[in-house]
Design a protein that fits this description.
Elements: H1 2-28, H2 48-64, E1 68-69, E2 75-77, H3 78-85, H4 90-93, E3 98-100, E4 106-109, H5 114-123, E5 133-142, E6 154-163, H6 168-184, E7 190-196, H7 200-216, H8 223-231, H9 242-249, H10 260-275, E8 280-282, E9 294-302, E10 311-317, H11 321-324, E11 332-338, H12 339-348, E12 361-365, H13 368-383, E13 388-390, H14 397-407, E14 411-415, H15 417-422, E15 424-429, E16 435-439, H16 443-451
Parallel strand pairs: 1-5, 7-8, 12-13, 12-14
Antiparallel strand pairs: 2-4, 3-4, 5-6, 6-11, 7-9, 9-10, 10-11, 14-15, 15-16
This protein binds adenosine monophosphate.
């Protein structure tokens, strides 16, 4: 008996001990912060129509202009970015998300896309392809910057690069594509800012001149620019600090110190832009924050009346990059748009987001058997390209019809107990209220006929860029 009592006590004691252990483990767990990291955002369903429109317009334009899609990893070896973007740049010095993996590799999250794409171009021997090799990419990039409106730590870029062609007509075409992207998204008031920062030969002489000038004004520069003057003097020109801007106004300008080749290149670019009727501003202080640029640099600015200009995108020529990271000498040019900035601007100018096609048919069911059958019927309709709405969780016909009315569908298909047994379906015209009974076998054809061919919605068509007013895509 004593043994039995002991056993019972032991059995009872065990759960209490386990409970204590669970409590202790819980105590050690940090609470989960129900928010993303600083500078990172969820893209919620209500914002997705803007993202969808950006995806559709950019993918369509990339195809129209002969770009092929490429996707490269978000994580690369750090030295790819250090060497290509430049050790002295803000992006590499302050903003790189870099870490050592468990295997000891020094890696970083990409802060832009071109370096990874150039790496892939070399690795996959794309230099043997017919030139120019035009590549399009889209995805997230990461910069450990100070977050504010329009500046995030995780953001998305759409990126266009063209390898293997040095003719300035490519520069003009890239600027044309960039302008088309924003205009097709409904952002009409833009400013195209262009500059030439020369090649390594003429830039060296220009840099010396600039450094001399900056040294004579050193006391008037901010702390960052005093340091920049040594490592990346051109960056002083686009510093946002007032006192540095004042110094920059009278600084020597790169366009006045180009070698003959760079001068002719820039002149031809401007002639092509004139030919395209693309108005531009030559901005001598536009230098861009990455070391790999040569000759042409450009940005697309939003033309907000409040005077707050935001750079929606930018790029330039980078003739030395491929060779610098280990490939053969390959002239190239590219640009990237920041998708979040574009969407902010679309909202500001009330540009239309993508409007998904709406279902014209509702499927209602009543009773257990009908409910079961309606799942299959839904899938049959879907397979036949007919966009259908349903509310399977609701039991009453009245409440289902209320949903159908709210959705503004043209017809409701009603499947009740009797219809399920008879293999029929009631078709209710939601405008006239008329009803008819159709055999389940002929239902698809009948529905298609009633919706008329041009009303049949095929929603798996990714080749179509929706016009803002368009509600439906056609077969
Ligand atoms: P960049 O690669 O610096 O030339 O930037 C190209 C475009 O990306 C800019 O014109 C912006 O639209 C966008 N962009 C750059 N930095 C950020 C950021 N921190 N947050 C959001 N968008 C950005």
């Amino acid at each position: 008996m004593a043994k039995i009592i002991k056993k019972v006590v032991a059995k009872k004691a065990a759960p209490a001990k386990a409970k204590k252990q669970v409590k202790e483990v819980k105590k050690e767990l940090e609470p989960i912060a129900l928010q993303p990291l600083r500078g990172m955002k969820d893209i919620l369903p209500e914002d997705q129509p803007y993202w969808e429109q950006v995806r559709r317009v950019t993918e369509r334009l990339s195809r129209d202009y002969g770009f092929s899609r490429i996707d490269t990893p978000i994580v690369e070896f750090s030295n790819l970015f250090n060497r290509s973007i430049g050790e002295g740049t803000d992006i590499v010095e302050k903003e790189l998300y870099s870490f050592v993996t468990k295997g000891g590799d020094k890696v970083a999250l990409r802060p832009e896309m071109t370096a990874g794409i150039a790496r892939a171009y070399i690795q996959h021997g794309m230099n043997v392809l017919s030139k120019p090799v035009k590549l399009f990419s889209a995805g997230t990039v990461y910069r450990y910057d100070r977050p504010q409106e329009g500046r995030y730590r995780e953001f998305s870029q759409v990126n266009f690069d063209s390898f293997g062609e040095q003719d300035p007509i490519l520069d003009a075409q890239m600027i044309q594509v960039a302008a088309r992207v924003v205009q097709n998204l409904g952002i009409k008031a833009i400013q195209i800012q262009v500059n030439s920062i020369g090649c390594p030969v003429c830039r060296k002489q220009y840099k010396d001149l600039l450094v001399n000038y900056l040294e004579s004004k050193a006391t008037k520069l901010c702390i960052d620019c005093k340091r920049r003057m040594e490592v990346s003097p051109l960056r002083v020109l686009d510093c946002k600090e007032d006192k540095c801007s004042q110094v920059a106004v009278s600084a020597p300008q790169s366009v006045d110190h180009l070698c003959e080749e760079c001068r002719v290149h820039f002149k031809s670019l401007l002639e092509y832009l004139d030919e395209l009727d693309l108005p531009y501003t030559i901005n001598p202080r536009l230098v861009r924050g990455l070391d790999y640029y040569t000759k042409t640099v450009f940005e697309i600015w939003s033309g907000s009346e409040e005077g707050r200009k935001s750079s929606l995108g930018g790029g330039g020529r980078y003739d030395g990059l491929v060779k610098m990271i280990g490939g053969e000498a390959t002239p190239a040019i590219g640009f990237a748009f920041g998708v979040e900035r574009i969407i902010l601007e679309m909202k500001r100018v009330q540009a239309k987001p993508y409007r998904a096609p709406k279902p014209k048919v509702f499927l209602a069911q009543l009773g257990d058997l009908a409910k079961k059958k309606s799942l299959r019927l839904f899938s049959e309709l879907e397979k036949n390209g007919i966009l259908v709405a349903e509310s399977f969780g609701r039991g009453s016909l009245k409440s289902q019809l209320r949903v159908a009315n709210r959705l503004g569908v043209e017809m409701t298909l009603i499947l009740g107990q009797k219809e399920a047994l008879d293999k029929t379906v009631i078709i209710k015209n939601m405008i006239s209220g008329e009803q008819e009974t159709a055999s389940a076998e002929k239902l698809i054809d009948l529905v298609k006929k009633k919706l008329k061919t041009d009303n049949v919605v095929v929603y798996h068509d990714h080749n179509h860029v929706a016009e803002p007013s368009q509600e439906q895509e056609q077969t």
